[in-house]
Predict the structure.
Amino acid sequence: MIYRTFGRTGWQVSEIGYGMWGMGGWTESDDAESLRSLHLSVELGCNFFDAAWAYGSGHSEKLFSELARGHLDKKLYIATKIPPKNRIWPTRRGFKLEDVFPADYIKEYTEKSLENLGVETIDVQQFHVWEDDWAEQDEWQRALEDLKRAGKIRAAGISINRWEPWNAIRTVRTGLIDSVQVIYNVFDQNPNDELLPVCAEFNIGVIARVPFDEGSLTGALTLDSKWSEGDWRNGYFVSENLQASVTRADALKLLVPANMTMPEMALRWILANKTVSTVIPGMRKEKNVRANSAASDGILLSDELMREIEKHRWDRTPTEWSQ
């Protein structure tokens, strides 16, 4: 496993981190299987884990607590997230900060997460949604300062709404946050336009999420793909999105080298960008932990392949089904 510096914190974090959404709230998750996968990831060098209170109402955080108790000799970095008070994902233009992240609520959910995680300090406390219009409002700023001063959190960040990488640039420029989490993958390349250059300028830790585009970049989706009742993917991969995703993924398959899988190629494309601090694929099975961790070996895709992949950029804007 290769390690990268997490922005201005100076922490050395594994470039393949661990996204815990799937094991916190998706259907067909099994805690025993999840924990085996988590423990294996640590053995393979992973030390960065991304949870959220919303992933099973604290369930992912509790799984991390159990994991950490089994590795007291290692420093495992935990990033979690405060859910929006109005429980609307993502935010909408015009939402008021006091309805989503009032100061007392920020502190309340930090305490909840501390209890679930079984730690005295959260490494990265993130806002689970964000509006850049809140950048200069001092209520969230004072709340974070108070939490840092009290030793409750070490760093603070923003998880940016789907397909809105522009929606945190002003906040990054305040110098008051330490990290951003953004959808960044072979299809969603637009963070390269503005967000990632600003993060590099301000030395911000970058967490790349959804590296496989919710599954389409694994190459496993088909036009007949369906999920268990209650699984959020049934609402995301509506007919128009499923068809477009499968068509684009099938076109991309033609570029996969003979000695490589499509998910591996997708990860290596992201890792070529040194502004990215860590990539957080969701991994509920041990075979996926092994495969994804193996991509952290420093081997880069050829310049020619990188250029061909960049032609598969897919610019999208939020829609009703994407939210």
